[in-house]
Design a protein that fits this description.
Elements (H helix, E strand, L loop, with lengths): L6 H4 L4 H4 L20 H16 L4 H10 L4 H15 L4 H6 L6 H13 L2 H58 L5 H29 L1 H4 L3 H13 L3 H22 L4 H11 L3 H15 L4 H5 L6 H14 L2 H57 L1
Helix pairs in contact: 3-4, 3-8, 4-5, 7-8, 8-9, 8-12, 8-17, 9-17, 11-12, 12-13, 12-17, 13-14, 16-17
Family: Belongs to the GSP F family.
Protein name: Type IV pilus assembly protein PilC
Organism: Flagellimonas meridianipacifica
């Protein structure tokens, strides 16, 4: 989504604006099943718009410039309709509110920027928000990619052994009428099951993946998935940390923009896609509306932990809510990076050991009868 400024526009920009790290805009996009205006595009959109606005270029001209540099027709049309709405008298925040691609959180942040005259600053902060969010998603993806590749390769090896190697041994055992131990019979039975029902088993695995976009729309399914993920040792705490980092960053930005704390929590709740945290935020919201302080509404909730409750208590006493949430966000972001590396480091040997055990069981189950057969023939 990068763009080139014309020479006449560059004359308006200062050195500080040209010092933006454009290489960030060339990072790999995080897309899933072809999302139209995903978080990576939002990161680029807000960062580029912030640069143009700081350079003294009007909002309409900035949007027109961004839209003109889009390669995909759908994105060009997206910017064209935004310009039409702007010409019709709608504010920028109203334009975002009318489009499903943008969240209520973005709408209110932009509205605050318009009212305060700090739209360029809000654009920059939104760009930073989505940059961090994308980095957290990358950390999660990077932590899981290599172990998943190892696991997938190992499963293929297991299937190959059960489908091709075990039947060869089975023929030898039948020809020599060898009495087979229970473990060998179990492995042969598994091999026969894969031979007879392997295609159906493959379809049962592939079909849910292909139709994921449909059944994941169900709130009930998503809740069960999130609850299951949360129970997985280490992985659950890592995923929780990713979403806590997003939550604290959102609240820090909104409170810095003078949005009331309760309203900030409500908007952050709508933005979060992790149901255990959403439910915890809904519970927190209800307690605050009853007059309970923020730190008391958090206290005792396993999702947030005692550390957050203690720090927020200090923030309430010193009137430093924005500062504390920013510091919490920095801590969570750092923990996400550290845990992503640790997660990958831990999962690799565990998967290798488990797969090694499976391969060992297959080999032992095949060679036990062979040893018995060789002793009889000897």
């Amino acid at each position: 989504m990068g763009f080139k400024l014309e020479q006449t526009i560059l004359d308006k920009a200062t050195k500080s604006t040209t010092a933006i790290a454009w290489d960030e805009l060339l990072k790999k996009e995080i897309t899933l099943f072809g999302q139209f205006f995903n978080n990576k595009k939002k990161e680029d959109f807000y960062n580029e718009l912030a640069v143009l606005l700081k350079a003294g270029i009007h909002l309409r001209e900035s949007l027109e410039l961004l839209g003109g540099n889009q390669k995909k027709e759908k994105l060009k049309q997206f910017f064209t309709t935004m310009l039409s709405d702007l010409d019709a008298g709608q504010s920028f925040s109203e334009i975002l509110q009318a489009r499903k691609a943008f969240t209520e959180y973005e709408y209110y942040a932009v509205q605050i920027g318009e009212e305060s005259g700090n739209l360029s600053r809000i654009m920059e902060e939104l760009g930073q928000f989505f940059k961090r969010k994308n980095e957290q998603q990358r950390s999660l993806i990077n932590a899981m990619t290599y172990p998943i590749i190892i696991l997938g390769t190992a499963i293929l090896v297991e299937v190959f052994m059960l489908r091709m190697v075990v039947p060869m041994f089975e023929d030898i055992f039948k020809q020599n009428q060898v009495d087979l131990p229970a473990i060998t019979l179990w492995i042969i039975g598994t091999s026969n099951f894969i031979r007879d029902y392997g295609l159906l088993l493959l379809l049962a695995i592939v079909f849910p993946i292909i139709t994921r976009k449909l059944w994941m729309k169900s709130e009930k399914v998503q809740r069960k998935k999130d609850q299951l993920l949360l129970r997985i040792p280490f992985v659950g705490s890592f995923i929780k940390m990713v979403f806590l980092a997003q939550f604290t960053q959102a609240v820090a930005l909104l409170t810095a923009s003078k949005v009331p704390l309760l309203h900030s929590i409500q908007m952050a709740k709508r933005m979060i896609r992790f149901y255990p945290l959403r439910d915890a935020l809904a519970e927190m919201e209800g307690k605050i509306m009853k007059g309970i302080s923020l730190h008391e509404s958090i206290k005792g909730n396993d999702i947030f932990g005692n550390r957050m409750a203690s720090l927020i208590k200090v923030a309430e006493e010193t009137n430093q809510t924005e500062y504390i949430f920013e510091k919490l966000n920095q801590q969570y972001a750092l923990e996400v990076q550290q845990k992503s590396k640790l997660l990958s480091t831990l999962l690799e040997p565990i998967i290798i050991v488990v797969i090694g055990l499976f391969v060992g069981v297959i080999l032992v189950s095949m060679y036990l009868p062979m040893f018995k057969l060789s002793s009889v023939l000897g």
